[in-house]
Amino acid sequence: MKIVYVLPGPISRNEQGRLEMERRLEILRSYAAPATIVDIVDVEEGPASIESLYEEYLSIPSTVDLMLEMERKGYDAAILGCYGDPGLDAIREVTEKMVVVGPGEAGVMAAAMCGYRFSIITVTNSIVNPLHHLVEKAGVGKKLASVRAIETPVLELANDREGTIRKLVEEGRKAITEDRADTLVLGCMSMGFLNVAEEMTKQLGVPVINPGKISLKMAEALVGAGISHSKVAYLTPPKLSLGKVNSSAGLLVRKESSTSS
Amino acid sequence: MKIVYVLPGPISRNEQGRLEMERRLEILRSYAAPATIVDIVDVEEGPASIESLYEEYLSIPSTVDLMLEMERKGYDAAILGCYGDPGLDAIREVTEKMVVVGPGEAGVMAAAMCGYRFSIITVTNSIVNPLHHLVEKAGVGKKLASVRAIETPVLELANDREGTIRKLVEEGRKAITEDRADTLVLGCMSMGFLNVAEEMTKQLGVPVINPGKISLKMAEALVGAGISHSKVAYLTPPKLSLGKVNSSAGLLVRKESSTSS
Amino acid sequence: MKIVYVLPGPISRNEQGRLEMERRLEILRSYAAPATIVDIVDVEEGPASIESLYEEYLSIPSTVDLMLEMERKGYDAAILGCYGDPGLDAIREVTEKMVVVGPGEAGVMAAAMCGYRFSIITVTNSIVNPLHHLVEKAGVGKKLASVRAIETPVLELANDREGTIRKLVEEGRKAITEDRADTLVLGCMSMGFLNVAEEMTKQLGVPVINPGKISLKMAEALVGAGISHSKVAYLTPPKLSLGKVNSSAGLLVRKESSTSS
Amino acid sequence: MKIVYVLPGPISRNEQGRLEMERRLEILRSYAAPATIVDIVDVEEGPASIESLYEEYLSIPSTVDLMLEMERKGYDAAILGCYGDPGLDAIREVTEKMVVVGPGEAGVMAAAMCGYRFSIITVTNSIVNPLHHLVEKAGVGKKLASVRAIETPVLELANDREGTIRKLVEEGRKAITEDRADTLVLGCMSMGFLNVAEEMTKQLGVPVINPGKISLKMAEALVGAGISHSKVAYLTPPKLSLGKVNSSAGLLVRKESSTSS
Amino acid sequence: MKIVYVLPGPISRNEQGRLEMERRLEILRSYAAPATIVDIVDVEEGPASIESLYEEYLSIPSTVDLMLEMERKGYDAAILGCYGDPGLDAIREVTEKMVVVGPGEAGVMAAAMCGYRFSIITVTNSIVNPLHHLVEKAGVGKKLASVRAIETPVLELANDREGTIRKLVEEGRKAITEDRADTLVLGCMSMGFLNVAEEMTKQLGVPVINPGKISLKMAEALVGAGISHSKVAYLTPPKLSLGKVNSSAGLLVRKESSTSS
Amino acid sequence: MKIVYVLPGPISRNEQGRLEMERRLEILRSYAAPATIVDIVDVEEGPASIESLYEEYLSIPSTVDLMLEMERKGYDAAILGCYGDPGLDAIREVTEKMVVVGPGEAGVMAAAMCGYRFSIITVTNSIVNPLHHLVEKAGVGKKLASVRAIETPVLELANDREGTIRKLVEEGRKAITEDRADTLVLGCMSMGFLNVAEEMTKQLGVPVINPGKISLKMAEALVGAGISHSKVAYLTPPKLSLGKVNSSAGLLVRKESSTSS
C-alpha cells in the first residue's frame, strides 16, 4: 500500500522547510503498518501556513493539481496535510479511485468513536467558526462539545514546545470541565507533529487524537477495506465528464491565455 | 450608493462575453433604486462557468483580489456573481466595511421570509449536494424542502430559453407537489439573468426568487441599514492583523518567487 | 413605493402618543430611499405595550383588520410594529399581495447574513422564551447564540436613555464573551426608535441590528424584488376561499350578534 | 377533581350548538375516572370553527378570559377545546395553578409514547403548516412523520360520518406506508367527538389517538400527579406582576375608552 | 384497572427489601385513583441497584420474563421500576396489549408539558450520558436543558434524607440559573420514593416531577384512553411471529442445553 | 497486534456452527494487515441470531463477560460480532484499555467518510427503527438517508445467495434513486460474511461497506493510533470504582444465591 502526505504549502523552498518535511516523513513512517510505503510532497505555490479560510482557498488550486498527479503515480491514498481539509470535496470530484483523507474529517470521526462529546483544540480564533462548519459537514455536529483556540500562530507552535503543551492542557481541561467534553482532537497538523497527544492524555485522562497519526491509520483502513469516496456523491465536474475539456487543468481559463486570444 | 457586480469568471475576453456583461449590467440597473449606481467587473482568470466545487475554488483567488480592489475604490457593496457564493467567507475575512452579498445566501434568506419551505432549482446534479451545504451554512436548513436540477449546463441555458423554462417549471412543480415546497429559488445566476422568474410564478402560483434581483435589493437594504458583516465573525487572517504580511496578496507564496530563492 | 408602519397598540389616543407617532414617522422617513413614501397608523384597540404572549394575542384582531385596510388602500408593504411579530402568519393568510414585514423575522434574517451567531437583546425575561420560538419559526435557530433581557419595561426604556444604553452594552458584551455571539439584534421596536444601535456598535465592535431600520429596508427590498409571501404557504382561511363568509371580519361571531339571535 | 372543557367558539347560541355541547359533555363524562367531575363551557365571542391561524387568534381573547374565570371557580384543570392549542401559552401566563391541557400538545405527547414516529391526520391543508409548528413547540418534532389533511371542513365532518372515516383511513394508510408512521393522532377536536379512533385502529392496526379522550386523561394525570405549568416558563405579564394593572383584562386598552378620553 | 410495579432488581430476598417493597406499594396505592388496583413484584435475579448501562442490561432478561407473566395475569399496565427504562423497547416487542410505562419516558414527557426547558437531577455521573440518550430516544431532546448528578449512590440516598434534599436543591438551583431550566425531573426511582419533590418545589418555585408518581398517573391515563404501544413500531421478534420458536423464552439458547448436546 | 472477533451467539455447539466460525476466521484473517493476529470466540449462552432488541439484550450479559476475559488475555482490540452493537457502551464501561469496535458504529462512520448520505440495507423490518437509533447514537444521523430491509431472516441469508444479492441490489437501488443515498452499508454481520459488497458496488456504482471488513480495519486503525474509548465518557460502574464489588460479575445478584440466603 502506497500513501502520500501532501503538504498544501510550499515549504520545501528552503533548507529549514526541507528538514521539516523529512522530520514529518520519518514520523509518518513510524506510524505506518509494516506493508505501508509512505512518501511526502509539497505544492509549488500556496500559503506559508493556514490560519484563515482565505489561506485555505489559496492552497486549493495547486493542491488539487498535485493530488491528481499523485493518483496518476499510483498512490492508493493521499493525506491532505491541513486540518481544515481545504478542497477535500473538490479533490474527490476530480480523482477517481485514490482514497483522499482529510485530517479534519478523520480526526473528528475517530473522536466520535471514542466517546459522547469531543472538543477540538486549535491554534487561533480565526479558525474556530470554520472548524464548527467542518464538523457539521463531516456529519458529527451532534457530538461536538466545543472548539477552543490557544491563540498561538501555527509557525510559532514549535518555538516554545513546553509553553504550547501548557496552553493545550489548559484549554483541554476547560473543554472537559466547562464544555463536558470526554475526548479531545488537536485541530492543526503542526500540533500533530509536535507529538504532544500522549502527554496531554497523561495529564487529562482522556483520549487526545493526533490528526496526523489518525489520518495515516484511516488511510490504511479505508484502502484495506477497499472503499473510497462515492462518485455519486462527489460527481466529476460536468465539463470533464461530458468531454468539453480534456483535463482538470482545462477548467481554469488562465490569465496568460487572455493575451494570446 | 455604489454597488458593483463581480463576475468570478473571465468573460470579458471576447466580444460575446463583453456583450453579455453589458446586458447583465443593464438588467441590474433596471432593478436598482433611483439613487443606486451599479457597475460590473470580471476577473482576469477563473473558470468559464461554475458547475462543481472545484470550479468554485478555482474562482476564489482572483475574485478576492478583485473584491479588495472594489473596496479600495469605494464601493458600498459588492455582489458575488455566482449562486454558490464561492469564497464569500474569505472575502469577508479580508474586506473591512464593504457589504458583500452572496446570491446563494441572499436568495435563501428571501425565500425563508416568503413561506415555510423552499426548494432550489439549479443547473446540474453536480452542484446539488454543495447547495445543501450552502443552505445549512446560511442557517436556514430547517426550511429547505429540496434542491433539484434541470440537468442543463450553465453555458447552454440561454440556447433554448423555452426549453429551459419548461424544465424549470417541471422541476418546480415536483418541488411543490412532492417535496411540499411553497417557494422556489433559482439556483444559478445565469438563470437569474434569463428573466424567467415571473413566468414561473405565473405558471406555478408561488414566489420564485431571482438571485440576481434579490442580491441587488439585499445589497441596497444592508447598505441602507448601515450594517455589514461582523469582523468578530469573519476575523482578519492573523498574519495580516498582526502585521506579518503587508497585504492579502502577501498571504500567497507564489511559484515564481521560488526560482528567485 | 408606499410603505405603512402599523402600530399594534392604540397610542394615538393622547397627545404624547401622537407626538411619539410623529417622531417615529420622521425617523422612518429618514431611513427611506428617495422614491419611498412612508406612513404610520395605529390600531383603535390593543395593549399599551407588549411584554407577554397574552398582550401579543390581544393585539392581533385589530391589527389584522387594519392590515387588510392598508392593503385595500394600495400600500405595497406594511411593517408590523412589534418585534414579536404578533399575528404575522395570520396577516399573511388574509392579505393577498402586500408585503408584510415582521421586524422579528427581518431582524434575525439580517443578523444571520452578518455572521455565524447572533444574540437578541430584549426588554424583559417574560419575552425570552417566546423570542426563542420566533427564531425557530423564522428558520434560523441554528445561528441563535442567546436571547438576553435588560429587565426594563418597554414604557420605561426612554425615561433613562443613558441607563438603557448601559444595560444594553452590558448584556451585549455578555452575549459576545459568554455566548459566543458575533452580531446583536435589538429585540424590541421601542429600542429601535431610541437610535442606540450605532452607539452600541462603537462600544462593542459588532453589527447591531435596529429592527425598525432593517424592517423598512427589507420592505423596500422585497417590494423592489417583486416578491411577497407565498399563498401556498399562508393559505387563505377555507371559509373565505370557499365563499362561506364574505370577508375576514365575517370569521368572528361577535358577542352582540348573540343578543340579536 | 373538577375539570372543565372550554370551547373557544360560541356554539351555545342556538339549539343545535347546545345539543352538541351536551353530547360532548356526555362523551367526556364517559371517559372520566369515577371521582372526576366534568363540565363544559363556551365563549361568548369567537370563530364558528377553527381552520386557520387567523381564526385561532380570533378565539384567544375571550378564551383567556373564560379560562381565568374557570380558575377562579376552582377547577383543577381546563381543557382547551381546539386541537391547535390557540393561546395555550398565554393562558398559562395569566393563570396560576390550574392545569391547562392543550389537546395538540397532549395528543402528540401520547403519540410519542406509543411509537417511534407519528402522523397527524387533520381537516384542511390550511392548518398543516401550523400543526408542524405546534409539534416543534411541543418539543417532539423528531418523532413527527407527517401531517396530512382529508380536506373536509370542520363543520362538515359529521355530515357524512362514513365518508369521513373512509378518508381518515385512507390518509392514515398513506401515513403508515409512505411516511413510515406507526401511530396516528386525529388533529381536530370535532374528529375526536366523532368516535372514530377505535374503528381506525381496527382497520389500520396502529394506535389512533383521540385528542378529546387523551386530553381528559392527561388532565386527570397531571392533577393527580400534583404538577402544573412552570411559572418560571410562563411568566406572568410584567404589568400584572409589577401591579401596573389590576387584572388581565386591564392589559387591553379598549376602543370604547377611546371615546371617553 | 390493574397496574403492577415491576422492580428490575431482586430486592425481596431479605427482610429489609421486603419492607421497602411494602413501603413503595403503599405509596403507589396512595397515588392511585379510586378504581385502580396496584400491585408490586420484583425479579428473581438482577442488579442490586442500577447506576450504569451494564447494570441496566443485567436487569433486562429477568424483567422481560416477569413482564410477560404480568401480561398473562391480566394486568392493564406495568411500570418498569428503574428511571433508565432498561429494556422498555424489548418489553414492548414481546408484549401485546399491556401498557408498559417507562418512568424515564413518562417523566420527561410530563416535564415537557410543564415548560420550555427541563433538567434531570440524577444520582451519579455514570448515568448522565445514558440519560441524555434516553431523552433523545423519547423524542424531547429539544427541551432538555441539562442532566445533573448529586454524586450519591442509589443505596445511600435514604441514609441521609436531609443531606440528599440539600444536594438536590443545590443542583436544581444550578439547573435553573445556569442551564435555564424551568422544570425539574428526579432521575431515579429511589429519589421518587423519598417524597422530596414537593419540598423541592417549595424551595425552588418550579414543578419537580416525581417519576414514580407520574408513572402511575400516566399508566392510568393511557389505559383510560385505551391506547398502548404500536406493534408496528415495536415489532414482535420474527422468530416468534413466524412461529420458529414457541415463546420469548425460546429466543435464548441457554448454557445448560449446551452440556446436553 | 492481537484482535479477537467475539460472536454474541453460541454458535460453536454443533459442527455446522464450528465450521462457520472457522470460515469467518479465515475471511477475517484474509482482511488483516501482515502483523495482525486474529482470533474468534463465541459466547456459551445467547440468541441463535439477532433480529430484535430483545435478542440484542439477551446477548449482552454473556458477551460482556467474554469481552472482559479477552481484555485479561491481552487482546488489543475486540470486534463485537453483531451489527446492532448490543451492549457496546456497557462493554466500554467495564473494560479499561482494549479497543472495542462495534460494526454498526464503524460501518456508519466509514460510510460518512465516503459521501454525503448513506443508507443501511439490513435483514428484517423488526430492526429498522433500532438501527435509526444506532445511527443517532453514533452521532451521524445527519448523513443517514434511510434504513431498508430485504425481509430475509439472518439464518436464511446464505441459503439462496443469489436471491439475497438480488434483493440487496434492489433495495440498494431504491436507496440511491428514492432516498438520495450515495453510499450503502450492509446492516448485518452475516451479510458481511457473504462477500457481496464488491458485487453490489459493481452493479450499483457506489461504495458498499462490508461491516466485518471495516470493523477489522477500524480496529487496526484505532489500535495503531494508540487511542481507545474515553473512560470519562464510559465511566466504570460506581460499585466497581468504589470497590463495593470485586468484579463485574459481582454486579449481578444471581438467582441461585437467593436459595442460599
UniProtKB/TrEMBL annotation, chains A, B, C, D, E, F:
It holds the Pfam family Asp_Glu_race. GO terms for molecular function: amino-acid racemase activity. It comes from the Bacteria. PANTHER family: PROTEIN DCG1. Belongs to the HyuE racemase family. This is Hydrogenase expression protein HupH. It comes from Jeotgalibacillus soli.
